[in-house]
Each structure stands twice: as C-alpha cells, then as structure tokens.
Amino acid sequence: MGPWHCLLLLLLAPALRAQQQLMEYVERRLSLLEERISQWHDQSSRYSTELRDFKNQVLGMLEAAEKEREGMRTEVESTAVRVDRLEREVDYLETQNPAPPCVEVDETLMEKQVATAKKRKNEKYTKLTDCSDTIASVRAMKILKRFGSTSGLWTKDAAGTSEKIYVFDGTANDTVYVFPRMREFTLFSATRKAARIKLPYPWVGTGHLVYDGHLYYIRQQGSFQVIKFNLANKTVVDSSVFPAEEQIPVFGLSPFTYIEVAADEEGLWAIYATKDDEKNICLAKLDPTSLDIEQMWDTPCPRENAEGAFVVCGALHVVYNTRLPSRSRVQCVFDVSGTLAPEDASLVYFPKRYGSHSSMKYSPQERQIYAWDDGYQIIYRMEMKKKLEV
C-alpha cells in the first residue's frame, strides 16, 4: 500500500466512523419505534377488550334498567287498580244508604191486588193522553261505543229532563254507573268518569227503568219484586211483589229477564210471562206511585224467539230474532186501546249489527230507543205516524 492509500484511509476513517455511528443510531431508533409499536398494539388490544367488556356491562345495565322499568310499570298499574278500588269504596261510603227497609209480603194485600187486576183483565184500556202515534220505521241508527258485558242496559230518565246516562252492566249486579251527560259516556271508555250508585238489593235481568227521578228495578228473592228507588236521596221508596204466579222468562231469547218495566206516553207498564199462558207475553199497567197493577192483558205475542219489547202510545211492540242472531224486527203489536189492529201495524226492521238485543228502552220524550246489542250501545231514532194512517 502506498503512501497515498494510507493518507486516503486516514482521511476517510472519521467519515466511516460517523457513518457507522449514524447507522447504529438509526438502528436504535428503529428498535425503539418497533418496541413502541408493539406496546401500542398491546395497549390497543387491551383497550379493545376493555371496551368490549364495558359494552357488555352497559348492555347488562340497560337490560336490568328495562326490567326495573317493567317492574315499575306493573307496580304503577297495580297502584292504579288499587286507587280505582279505593275510589269505588269512597263512592260507596258517599252513597251508602241507610238501613234498607224490611220488605214484608202482605199476602192479603197481594191477593186483593191480584183479584182486582184479574177483574179488569183484558178489558179495553181508557187512555190518559191523546197520543195516537205508532212506529212507521227506523229513521236512523247511531252506534255510540262498546262498553261492558255482552248483555246489559243503558238509558236516560224516561220522564224527566235530566241528561244523565244510567248504565247497568251485565244481568246481575248491585252497582249502577251514572254518567253526567252523553258526552262523558261516549268519550271515556273507563268508568272512572262515572258516579256509582250501590243499590240496597242486587238487581237481576235487564228490565229496569229510570222514570221521573226514580229507579224501578227487579229484585229476585224467591218471588220477583219491583223496587222503587229514589235516585236523589238514595233510599228505597216502595217495593211490591209482582202478583203473578209461577213466572217464567218473558223473552225466549233473553232468559235472564222475567219482568220488563217500560214507559211510554201513558206511564208505566210491566211486560212479563207466566206458566198459565206459557206461550204468550202478558202486559200490565202499573201505578208509578204505589206500584199497584191497574190492569192486565193476555197478548197474542209469542215468547218464542222474542228478544225484547217496549210500549209506544199504549201499544206493546215485541222484537223478534232467531236463535242464531240475525236481523231484529217488530213482528207483533198489541194495542190495549184497540185503536190499532195487529194486522195493520207496520213491520219494523232494525238494521243488522252484531248479535241480538239484550235490552231496548223507548224514550217517549225523544222518540228513540236506547239499545244494548252484544256489548254495543246503540240509539235508534224512530219515524212515527198516526195510527189511523197506518
């Protein structure tokens, strides 16, 4: 090696050492960077695991919160039921009647009533008013709502001016719901908007009537009684054992009704049936003050396939259907005054809706019928005409 080579090596040695040191520095930095990347990867993996665990924990907490919310909803519903029960109990305490009178049956008086009524049985009726109308057809029908059981009764006061709606849910109970107006009854499905009247005796059937501030309802205790109940002071005014032996359901398709108390322009009537004339329906005129029977009639209207009846201007209208509910129709009319012959009466059909009527209450002031059809409350507006024009 010559002197020039030695001199060149001496000159390049520092540069080579510097390059080597730079390489070593770069390698150390790369190694450190790889180590940090490895740490970041480990931390990222750990964070991902922790995030997944946190997510699962949150989901578990949400499920637990949902269960607690469901439990709270159940408790709120239970509380609402208890509050509703408490309201009924408060209503009961507010409307608690005094001790009901002891209703004793005076056998002698009942025999006199039966004898007096039988003497006038089937006589021509002397009308109290100049009402000479009869039903020509159903002018309109309005379905208000569906409320309560499949069978029941709803009505207004047939003689007064009150707007209150009285509802008898079912065919046997002791509580009457009272809505202040038609609007409240139509808009609200619950009974919390209604007052409750707890009667001193349970009622049976759907033949009850609200007339001139009093409730006339049927009580069964061996024999059947008509109870006159004052709606203002919540007391029993009078009661009477219906003087008809061996009563049977008055309507073949409504076996729960034994007496139908009805009202028309002439006053109060009782529609019933006995085993003496098991095939046909009987009619009686009632004194609304004393509940005495003023007169009785055997009608030609059969019980079979009858589902309801009402009285218009002294004429009994019996509504018929079929065992499998079809279209209701007035197929038998009996006029106690003899003005309207049965063959001259209009055959009135009611629009077919849901089933069969469990009650039909005629309002002589409004000339319409409040009907209960398979749980639906319906109003039928009637088209009237003079009997002589039929």
From TrEMBL:
The keyword Disulfide bond is assigned to this record: yes
Pfam families tied to this protein: OLF
Localization per record: Secreted
Family statement: Belongs to the OLFML3 family.
Name of the protein this chain belongs to: OLFL3 protein
Primary localization class, coarse: secreted
Recorded coiled-coil stretches: 16-96
Record-annotated Olfactomedin-like domain positions: 130-386
GO biological process: signal transduction
UniProt GO cellular component terms: extracellular space
Keyword list, A-Z: Coiled coil, Developmental protein, Disulfide bond, Glycoprotein, Secreted, Signal
Disulfide bonds: C131-C313
Entry-linked PANTHER family: OLFACTOMEDIN-LIKE PROTEIN 3 (PTHR23192:SF8), OLFACTOMEDIN-RELATED (PTHR23192)
Superkingdom to which the source organism belongs: Eukaryota
Signal peptide from the UniProt entry: 1-18
